[in-house]
Design a protein that fits this description.
- By secondary structure, the protein is α/β, with parallel strands linked by helices.
- It has 2 domains: 83 residues, Immunoglobulin-like; 190 residues, Rossmann fold.
- Helices cover 26% and strands 33% of the residues.
- It has 7 helices and 17 strands.
- It has an 8-stranded mixed beta sheet, sandwiched between helices.
- Helix 1 packs parallel to helix 2.
- The chain is globular, with a radius of gyration of 19 Å.
């Protein structure tokens, strides 16, 4: 398992009964987590002194309960700064477990000894974009949500990266890649974090089980001949590490050589000393 264990401003304090207790900087939140199927005693004092609690509804969705929590605050990871704000469906605007992937491709970018062009698809609030830019890459950031792209720009400015070569695009990722193929553009690194289900700016439907493998094949057409890396993340239960490995091994490895790895990603839990699984990632590199 690849573990995001280098955080100072974030930690999973405890887990129990379908929920996790997290510290985000100076504030503690309780949020649902479908992986937490165990029922253990609430030993950590943070359960009683939480600043926010997302209550899931039996009818679907849910709502936040706030206890002395600001509308927005910041945390840092290494030299990056992220704006956080609780919004719909339990999210805060950041997936801390992805830091293990940020460290992986940042090392590749820094050690490449040449400028790398990186494409970040389904790029959300820009954690991977910022990490790649900080490491020295030129980045194209693509997401279908204008609000998410604006949020990512705020994170870039807070991290001192507003003048770095980042191209911000509000676009449907599939259609963007199709246009890049026609234009003959290529990238040295591709990152993608596809949703289980989503819609593009013009109502385009994305269902990961149907769409992901054709999309991986499609994006392989814009990997440069001397490309350095490819990364795909999955939070969908059916896309286990072995599935990600198989997709990359059949869509990318025969064309480019190199090596493929896939693992669960996770976060350490302070109270138990165990690891909370948080999805899976597949990596290709030369």
């Amino acid at each position: 398992m690849w573990i995001a264990e280098n955080w100072k401003d974030y930690e999973v304090l405890d887990t129990s009964s379908g929920e996790k207790l997290e510290r985000w900087g100076d504030y503690t939140l309780v949020r649902p987590d479908p992986q937490v199927i165990w029922n253990t005693p609430h030993q950590h004092t943070g359960w009683k002194s939480k600043n926010g609690h997302y209550h899931r509804s039996t009818k679907g969705g849910g709502e936040w309960e706030f206890i002395n929590l600001p509308k927005e605050w910041q945390i840092q990871y290494r030299d990056l700064t992220f704006h956080l704000k609780p919004f719909s469906f339990k999210h805060t605007g950041l997936f801390p477990e992805q830091a293990t992937n940020w460290d992986w491709f940042s090392k590749i970018i820094r050690e490449a000894n040449r400028p790398l062009k990186v494409l970040n698809l389904f790029a959300y609030t820009g954690g991977a974009t910022l990490a790649a830019a900080k490491a020295g890459a030129t980045v194209t950031h693509v997401d279908a949500s204008k609000g998410m792209v604006n949020w990512a720009k705020e994170n870039a400015a807070a991290s001192g990266l507003q003048d770095t070569p980042i191209r911000w695009l509000v676009d449907d990722c599939v259609k963007f890649v199709e246009r890049e193929i026609r234009r003959g553009n290529t990238y040295d690194g591709i990152i993608m974090d596809p949703p289980s289900y989503g819609r593009g700016p013009k109502g385009e439907i994305w269902k990961i089980e149907d769409s992901i493998y054709p999309f991986v094949e499609l994006t392989s057409k814009i990997l440069a001949k001397d490309a350095a890396f490819f990364l795909i993340n999955s939070y969908t239960t059916g896309l286990q590490p072995a599935v990600l490995n198989y997709m990359i091994s059949t869509a990318i490895l025969p064309k480019f050589g190199g090596k493929v790895e896939a693992e669960e990603i996770g976060l350490p839990v302070t109270e138990s000393g165990l690891i909370l699984p948080c999805g899976a990632s597949g990596r290709w590199s030369k």
